[in-house]
Structure formats: structure tokens, C-alpha cells
């Protein structure tokens, strides 16, 4: 057995039994042996359910049978409006609450997705997301052949930080750049490249038990022709948010194609990384018990999840959550937009709710027969979970609007 070298022998003398009784005793003995071995070897016991994200005792419904959350508010951060503003591509909403204001960032492009005309933009709301101020620029790429795209925020010690994915040419030399908001001017101070090695942040940094920050994302390998772009994290040097260590998460042999956009949730000293697969609509899972320095390989879990970026975290009531599209037999559809939750202080998801379906009559935002509701981010504030996401309005590709769902935390509570 893995990590153990235990041998068990029966203390009873051999018995002369007929064949049926012999088989019964052998079966019971082998089951007893397996149980004792697992109990006496924690490494093996942990490995048995390491890749079980969903509680198998709870049935996972098909998409059309999942209950819709009540009392969700919907707002539009940025409507797709090429005719008026000339922009086509929009993707990757980031959210942050900072000094009583709600900030949202996006990647925006008047040309084709992942080309040098991409730029990082933001808007601010002073009424909890109902209305938004004008589009501002975080960075539109002032170097030759440089594009800056969508990223994540962190409000810390009175300062708002932005970490944006960037690249040269068409997704070459991918890296992450840092910015700091100047409160007096409303402009963003450019702090330069802070993570290289293809790292693109996908969800906001979270504090780890050792006092650092960990930022989940992935390592883009498209420019090398590799079909596996693994999940990855960046780890800060304490509260110095200009210095980050890149950590690539290893990949299990069965993962043959991966675009590893990832999210994390932290359970004390254990960190769970949930990443996008490429070959199947299943979540990939890796774990770390040393604050993100080393990881088990990303492996296929038992949780269906569409092939898109997830968002995850722990709510203030102790429940874990995962926002993406999670439903039985739903394939790679990016609808409905769902949130899976755990019981408080547990790490297996056991119930899933619909945030919104493709048709959402009576609410702000676009509706169509089958939308792509994707690339969520989420942040909790004042008893509510704010979920930003892309909505392609039934158009092709990532010709998206940026929208917002506001969920009361009490609507996510589960009873045992």
C-alpha cells in the first residue's frame, strides 16, 4: 500500500471448513485487512477521496432540473455595443469592493480576441452595481506589440491593486503585470511585470495561513504548441505585492489536453485548486498542504463542469462555493450559470443552484435560447455574493456583455 509497510496475520488457527464457508471467511478477512490498512495509513485513506469534489450521496441533477436561486438581482456592467463603441471582444470580468465602491475590470478589443489591440479597462459603481461610471483604462499596451487584457483586483491596506494578464503579438510571452490605483487622480500606476512563465491570473488573490497571498491562474503554453497549459499559482512575498513566486501545478498522465484556468478555496492549511479540463466537461482537482508551494497533480475529479474558467472560495458562513456550469449530462454547454455549495466547514459540494438560465425575462441583461454564460468571478460583501460573468447574447465567440448577479448569502445556506 502507498506510504505504508504493514502486514496483518490472523491470530486464529486455520479451520477446516467446507468450500462455501472458506470463501466467506476469506472475503471477510480481506475486507478486514483493507479496512485496517486504510485506517492505519492516513496517506492512503486521504488518497481514496482526494479527487472526489462532489458528494456521491447527493444526486446531481440535469441542468433543466436544478432549482433557480430566489431573490437574485441582475445588473449590466458593460453592454456589448459594437455599433456605438467599436469594440467586439469582451471577456474576463474582475470585481473588487474598495472604499465603499464596486470596481469591475474587463479585457476589451476592437479587433480579434487575443491580438495586440486588446486593452484592460474598468468601471466603478457607487450604487452596488446598479449603474456604472464611464469606461476607464488600466493599460492599453504602450510598448511595441504589447497587449494587456483581463485580470483581477485586490483591495488591501487601503490600496486597490490590479493584476492583468498580458502578452506580445498573438498570445506570445504571456505574463502578469501589476498596477496600483492613484486615489487622487483615478489613474493606474504601472508597476511592470511581476510574474512571468506564461502566468495569467484568473481569480483574485487569497490570504494563506503562512501570511502570504496566493493568486490562481494558469500557465499559457499555446505559443509552444503544447496542448497542456497547466493550472498555476503565484505566491506573494508577504504583503509585498510587487514580488511573486510562480508555481506550476503538475498534471496527471491521463490529462492530455488542458487550458488550466483555475480557482482555489482554502481550508485552513489545505488548498484546493479546481481547473478547466480540455478533453472532458469535468473539473480537474489538485491539492496542496504547504501553502501552495507543492501540489498533487491535477487529476480528473467526479464533478461535471463545463470547459470554462471557474470561480471558487469560502463564504463567511463556512460554506465552499464553485461558480461555473455544473450539471449532469450537460456536456460543454455554458448554460445555465450555476453555483455549487458545500455544507459549512466541509470540502465536498453537495448541492447546486442555478444563478440564471439563458432566458431570464423581466431582468436586466441579454437573453437568448442558448447563451454562453461564462468566465465568472465572485466576491462577498455585506451579506451578498457578487458574481460577474460574460454573456455572449447568442452571438458567436466572445462577443460578450459583462453582467452582474447579486446573491443573498442566506439563499445558499443548506440544512443538514
Detailed description of the structure:
The structure is a single chain. This protein is mostly beta strands. It folds into 2 domains: 1-48, no CATH class; 49-412, 6 Propeller (Neuraminidase), CATH 2.120.10.10. Helices cover 8% and strands 44% of the residues. The chain is built from 3 helices and 27 strands. The strands form 7 sheets. Strands 10, 11, 12, 14 and 15 form a 5-stranded antiparallel β-sheet that branches. Helix 1 (19-40) crosses helix 2. The radius of gyration is 23 Å and the shape is globular.
Overview features:
3 helices; mainly beta; 27 strands; 416 residues; globular; disordered N terminus; four-stranded antiparallel β-sheet; Neuraminidase; five-stranded antiparallel β-sheet
Architecture blueprint of SSEs:
Elements: H1 19-40, H2 42-48, E1 73-78, H3 82-85, E2 89-98, E3 101-109, E4 118-125, E5 136-139, E6 146-156, E7 159-168, E8 172-181, E9 188-195, E10 199-201, E11 206-207, E12 213-219, E13 228-229, E14 231-237, E15 240-248, E16 258-259, E17 262-267, E18 270-275, E19 282-288, E20 299-304, E21 311-314, E22 320-324, E23 337-342, E24 349-356, E25 373-381, E26 384-391, E27 401-408
Parallel strand pairs: 13-16
Antiparallel strand pairs: 1-27, 2-3, 3-4, 4-5, 6-7, 7-8, 8-9, 10-12, 11-12, 12-14, 14-15, 17-18, 18-19, 19-20, 21-22, 22-23, 23-24, 25-26, 26-27
Amino acid at each position: 500500500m502507498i506510504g505504508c509497510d504493514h502486514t496483518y496475520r490472523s491470530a486464529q488457527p486455520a479451520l477446516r471448513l467446507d468450500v462455501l464457508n472458506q470463501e466467506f471467511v476469506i472475503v471477510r478477512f480481506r475486507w478486514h485487512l483493507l479496512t485496517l490498512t486504510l485506517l492505519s495509513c492516513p496517506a492512503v485513506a486521504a488518497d481514496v477521496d482526494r479527487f472526489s469534489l462532489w458528494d456521491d450521496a447527493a444526486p446531481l441533477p440535469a441542468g433543466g432540473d436544478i432549482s433557480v436561486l430566489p431573490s437574485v438581482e441582475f445588473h449590466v456592467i458593460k453592454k456589448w455595443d459594437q455599433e456605438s463603441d467599436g469594440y467586439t471582444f469582451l471577456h474576463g470580468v474582475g470585481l473588487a469592493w474598495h472604499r465603499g465602491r464596486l470596481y469591475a475590470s474587463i479585457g476589451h478589443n476592437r479587433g480579434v480576441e487575443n491580438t495586440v489591440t486588446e486593452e484592460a479597462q474598468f468601471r466603478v459603481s457607487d450604487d452596488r452595481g446598479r449603474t456604472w461610471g464611464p469606461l476607464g483604462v488600466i493599460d492599453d499596451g504602450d510598448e511595441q506589440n504589447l497587449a494587456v487584457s483581463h485580470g483581477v483586483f485586490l483591495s488591501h491596506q487601503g490600496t486597490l491593486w490590479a493584476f492583468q494578464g498580458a502578452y506580445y503579438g498573438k498570445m506570445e510571452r504571456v505574463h502578469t503585470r501589476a498596477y496600483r490605483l492613484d486615489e487622487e487622480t483615478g489613474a493606474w500606476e504601472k508597476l511592470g511585470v511581476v510574474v512571468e512563465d506564461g502566468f495569467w491570473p484568473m481569480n483574485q488573490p487569497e490570504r494563506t495561513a503562512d501570511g502570504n497571498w496566493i493568486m490562481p491562474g494558469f500557465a499559457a503554453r499555446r505559443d509552444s504548441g503544447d496542448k497542456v497549459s497547466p493550472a498555476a499559482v503565484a505566491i506573494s512575498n508577504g504583503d509585498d505585492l510587487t514580488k511573486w513566486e510562480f508555481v506550476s501545478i503538475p498534471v496527471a498522465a491521463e490529462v492530455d489536453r488542458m487550458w488550466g484556468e483555475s480557482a482555489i478555496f482554502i481550508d485552513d492549511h489545505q488548498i484546493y485548486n479546481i481547473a478547466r479540463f480540455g478533453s472532458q466537461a469535468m473539473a480537474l482537482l489538485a491539492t496542496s498542504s504547504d501553502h501552495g508551494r507543492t501540489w498533487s497533480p491535477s487529476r480528473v475529479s467526479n464533478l461535471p463542469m463545463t470547459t470554462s474558467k471557474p470561480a471558487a472560495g469560502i463564504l463567511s458562513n463556512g460554506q465552499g462555493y464553485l461558480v461555473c456550469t455544473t450539471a449532469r449530462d450537460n456536456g460543454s454547454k455554458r448554460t445555465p450559470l450555476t453555483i455549487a455549495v458545500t455544507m459549512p466547514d466541509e470540502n465536498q459540494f453537495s448541492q447546486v443552484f442555478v444563478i440564471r438560465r439563458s432566458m431570464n425575462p423581466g431582468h436586466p441583461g441579454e437573453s437568448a435560447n442558448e447563451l454562453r454564460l461564462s468566465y465568472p468571478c465572485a466576491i462577498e460583501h455585506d451579506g451578498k455574493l457578487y458574481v460577474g460573468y460574460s454573456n455572449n447574447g447568442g452571438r458567436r465567440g466572445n462577443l460578450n456583455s459583462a453582467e452582474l448577479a447579486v446573491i443573498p448569502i442566506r439563499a445558499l445556506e443548506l440544512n443538514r
